[in-house]
Amino acid sequence: MSASRIDETRPFVPVNIAVMTVSDTRTFADDRSGDTLVKRLEEAGHTLAARAIVIDDVAEIVSQLQAWIADPGVDAVISTGGTGLTGRDVTVEAFRSVFEKEIDGFSVAFHMISWEKVGTSTIQSRATAGVAHGTYLFALPGSPGACKDGWDGILKYQLDYRHRPCNLVEIMPRLEEHRRAEAGAT
């Protein structure tokens, strides 16, 4: 992180973040990974826009994503769970079905961080991220440790407007510029 820094001369801009736990067995009472994400985003000064637990089913995950993507009060979605290799792990397929653009570097950065902690076992994760209709979508593995790694190593910085040399918040107003151009042409 030597090239990363927080520029204290810039104002902090809170982001409205929805948290989705993908699991067939979790409830809000025992959702440690979801709790980890909520605690971290709130401690950073962001707003929890919504929270849901969704079963490991592509249609259910897509439905929740589409609802949040359509909600102007949600700027980003962070999910936990369902990014592995088993038959029930379908979060990545659901997310990719709604992406307009994939953020390839998110997976690369996540694996670099994970490599330091779990070595070659990182290949069993399919952490992914993308953009759909101006909403950032991040899919993290289901363990609290992976959520900490994804937030502490990547999202804490990229969702902070003060982060230099660049961050995802400062380009949020431009994510939909192609739609505005198309609307203006008609």
Automatic annotation (TrEMBL):
Residues in MoaB/Mog domain copies: 18-162
Transmembrane segments: none
Gene3D superfamilies linked to this entry: MoaB/Mog-like domain (3.40.980.10)
Stretch forming the signal peptide: none
Biochemical pathway: Cofactor biosynthesis; molybdopterin biosynthesis
SMART domains per the UniProt record, alphabetical: MoCF_biosynth
CDD domains linked to this entry: MogA_MoaB
Protein name in UniProt: Molybdenum cofactor biosynthesis protein B
